[in-house]
Structure formats: C-alpha cells, structure tokens
Write a structure and sequence with these properties.
The chain is α+β, with helices and mostly antiparallel strands. It folds into 3 domains: 133 residues, no CATH class; 75 residues, no CATH class; 53 residues, no CATH class. It has 7 helices and 13 strands.
Length: 286
C-alpha cells in the first residue's frame, strides 16, 4: 500500500473503527472490509486535499453508509473506539482485493463493449454502437475550488480532476464519482480519477434525485438556478443575479450579473455567496 504518510497513518488508526462501525450496523464482515478498502482507495489520490478542505471522518463515513446501503446520517462522524486493533486483521489484504475488484470492473466494461461491437457488426448496425458509446475522455489534474461537482463547456469538474466529456445531459454524484447520462441516452460512470466506464446499471441518482430544502434568495435579483447536495451534509445553491427566469438549467455569462454559490449546512444557516469566476458560458450542478 504505497500511499503518502498521512493516508497511511489514517488507515492504521481508523481501519478497525470504520469496519467495526459498519459491522455494528449489521453489515457482513467481508462486505464491511471491502467497502472500507474501496472507499479509502478511491480517496487516496485526493487525500491531501480532502484532509485540508473536509471533515474527513464525516465525509468518509457518509460515503461508506451510501456504499453499503445504510440510511444517510448527514454530519455524523465515523465512530471511535468501536473495536480494539487486531494485528491478525490488517487492511493490506483488503486493499489488494479492492484493487483487484476495481480492475475486474474495468475489464468487464471492456468486454461488454467488445461484445457489443461483435453483435452489432453481425446485425450490420455498428453505426448505432458508434453513436451511443461515450466519447474518449481527456483527464487533467486540477483542484476543484467548489465543494460540489460541476459541469461547464463540456468539462466535468470532480474533486481533483477535470474530465472532458461533451454532451452530458444530466449528472449526479454517486459515491466518490459521478453517474451521467449523455446526449445519446447512454449512461456512464466517472470515478474520482476520471476513468469513464459504460455498463452502469443503476440510474437511481439521476431518476430520483433528493429534493433540496427551500432556499430564500439574499436579494430580489438573485435567482436560484440549481441545487446539489454537498458530500458529508448540506446543500449548495447556484444563484444568478443577471436573470429573472429560473426555467433554464444553465447560467448565462453576463457583464452586469454574477454567478455565485451558497453553501447551507442546515436550514437557515448558510455561508456567504462565493462568486464563480472563470467558468465561462454556462455552469450546472446536475
């Protein structure tokens, strides 16, 4: 497990509590260990930033509960002192299994794509496959200054990477990544490292999004455009002071108006609006 020292220390200190906390919620022992290993593995690349910008115990515990199907408890930190450390149950073997599972999922995606090509070729409808497959995605490392995933000018901004993926019709956070529906109708999954895979069966995050709490604009000129949940709890609200109609989903660039994001951790307790600079064109939160 070659990771930075802070990440290694966290795993050594919190592995037993994270696993034990899930087991106390009736998650099977093996499923609990795999879930913790996969969640930590997905966070390894962005660990330094997460420690700096988040309450890691809160956001990781929220991701673990979602991954294992447990009810959400916004703002709840991971439990402490649940189990004594057991040297016979180290995290390294489970990290190895999580790596193997991740690789297997990627290979299954490739196999599905190859099988689709073969079938469509036999049916002489290869053009349909070509039209529906996701475009090749370019990925670059870039820290996200906003607390939520956002999309602008064909680029999807995750925590630590930007993925070029044109024609996204809608998207929603799913664990540490994103599930997105493209203009072709196909659904793809984008993980925290920017890897795009097809064959993502679950569209619940897209089809049944959570309802945002009511937000009262600061001034009569601030129009609420979109809202999205913040990892670990709370909601982010996208405002536009240059519009009078919130029927559209994108914010238009305006010389006289501004685009701003407001984060509310609970009803009535919101931070100051942060003006969004440099997005250009339009910006979406879903």
């Amino acid at each position: 497990m070659t990771v930075n020292a802070d990440f290694t220390r966290y795993v050594e200190a919190r592995w037993t509590d994270l696993v034990g906390g899930l087991e106390d919620e009736d998650v099977a022992p093996e499923a609990a260990r795999i879930a913790v290993a996969e969640t930590l593995l997905a966070s390894r690349r962005s660990w330094s930033r997460r420690v700096r910008d988040e309450q890691v115990d809160v956001s990781l515990w929220a991701e673990l509960r979602e991954r294992t199907g447990l009810p959400a408890r916004p703002g709840e930190p991971a439990p402490h002192g649940v189990r004594p450390s057991d040297p016979r149950d180290p995290p390294e073997p489970w990290f190895a299994r999580a790596e193997a599972l991740r690789g297997a999922r990627r290979r299954r995606g490739l196999v599905r794509a190859a099988a689709g090509v073969l079938v469509l070729a036999v049916l002489a409808t290869g053009w349909q496959w070509w039209a529906s497959r996701p475009p090749a995605a370019e990925v670059r490392e870039e820290a996200n200054e906003l607390p939520v995933v956002w999309y602008s000018q064909g680029e999807l901004h995750l925590e630590d990477v930007v993925v070029t993926l044109p024609e996204i019709e809608e998207f929603a956070a799913s664990g540490s990544g994103v599930v997105a529906r493209l203009g072709s109708g196909s659904v793809v999954h984008v993980d925290a490292d920017g890897d795009v895979t097809t064959g993502h069966d679950s569209t619940e995050a897209l089809d049944d999004p959570p309802e945002a709490p009511t937000f009262i604009a600061f001034t009569q000129y601030d129009v609420l455009v979109q809202a999205a949940p913040v990892p670990g709890g709370g909601w982010a609200y996208l405002l536009d002071s240059s519009r009078r109609d919130s029927a559209q989903d994108a914010l238009r660039q305006s010389e006289s108006g501004r685009r701003a994001l407001v984060v509310c951790m609970s009803e009535g307790k919101c931070g100051e609006p942060v003006t969004i600079l440099g997005a250009g064109g339009s910006i979406r939160l879903r």
